[in-house]
Specification:
By secondary structure, this protein is an alpha/beta fold. It has helices spanning 16-31, 45-50, 53-61, 66-75, 108-117, 121-138, 152-160, 172-185, 209-221, 235-239, 250-253, 256-288; strands at 3-7, 35-40, 99-102, 141-146, 163-168, 195-201. It is built from 12 helices and 6 strands. It is globular and about 55 Å long.
Length: 289
Amino acid sequence: MRSTITIMNAKGGVGKSTLVLTLAETLAACHGKRVLVIDSDAHASISNMLMRPDWVQAFQGQGRSIVDYLIAAVLKNETLPWISFLSAGVSDVDDARTVDLMPGGGHLTLFEREVSKAGLETRLRQAVRTLLAEARSAYDFVLIDSAPGLSVLTEVWLREVDFYLSPTKPDYISTHGLQFLGQFSQRDTAMGFAECLGVIISMKDRAAFEDAQYERWLRQNSKLPCFDQVIPRATSLQTAAHFCPRPRSYWAKYPGETGKALRQLAAELLVRNSAALTRKSYREGRAAE
Ligand SMILES: Nc1ncnc2c1ncn2[C@@H]1O[C@H](COP(=O)(O)OP(=O)(O)O)[C@@H](O)[C@H]1O
Ligand SMILES: [Mg+2]
C-alpha cells in the first residue's frame, strides 16, 4: 500500500516540518516502512532536522537538491536520475534507517518565478508526476514538506500526490490557514486535487483552557476530519528539530507520553491511509470501466 502525501497548511509555524520528521521516523522505526522525505521549502527546515547541517550545505553546494532536479527537468528539459539527488539513510534515530531525503534548496523561490515567467507550469506538473511515479515504486511513503502559502510548486504537489495532511495549532489564525486550503481545493476541480487524510491538531498545551476550547471547536466545525490523536506541545518535540550527530534510539528521542502520542498518530495514519487507498483504487476502477 504505497502513498504520496503532502503536509500542508497555508499558515507557517503550525508544526508541518516537525510532523514530517516524527511521522517519517515513527513509520520507519516502529513499522519498518521505507520513507522518502522531499523538502519543498526554501528554508530547508526538514533537511536540517534530518541531516547534519554541513551535509545539507554540501548537497546544496553540489547542486543535488530537489530544486536542482526540477531546474534540470523543467527549465533545461534534461531528465537526470532522481536517485542522484537522494541522501539515503538520514535521521539521527538509529532504529529508523529507512528514511531517505531529497534535500531542499534556497533557490526554490527563484525557480518558481522562472516557471511562472516562462509559463512552464504544465512541464513542472509533468516533472513532478514522473518523479512521484518513480518514488512510489521504491518507497512505502513519500512525504512532502511544503512551504507555507500556496506557491506554484505547492499547488502542483497538492494536485499530483494521493493525499494531504493538515496540521494546525489550536488557535484562530492557524485554523484560518486550513479554511483557506479547503476553499482552494474546491477551485478548478477538473485539475485534480489530493484527498485530505485529515487534520492533525498539533502543539496542544494540555494545561491550556483555550487549547481545549479550540480543539472542541475544530472537531465540531472543521469540514475536514480531525485525527483522534493530537500532538502535545512538548520540549522533546521542540528539541527533536535539532539534529544530533550521535545516533540515538527512537525511545530516547521521543520518550514517554510524547512517543506514545506519535505512535498512536502513526497507527491512525496507517488505518486512514489504507482506507483511502482502497477508496481511490475503487474510484479509479470505476472511471476505467
Ligand atoms: N509539538 C510541539 N511541541 C513543541 N514545539 C513544537 C512542536 N511542534 C513544533 N514545534 C516547534 O515549533 C516551531 C515551528 O514548527 P515547524 O514544524 O517548523 O512548523 P512549520 O513547518 O509549520 O513552519 C519549531 O521551532 C518547532 O521546533
Ligand atoms: Mg516547515
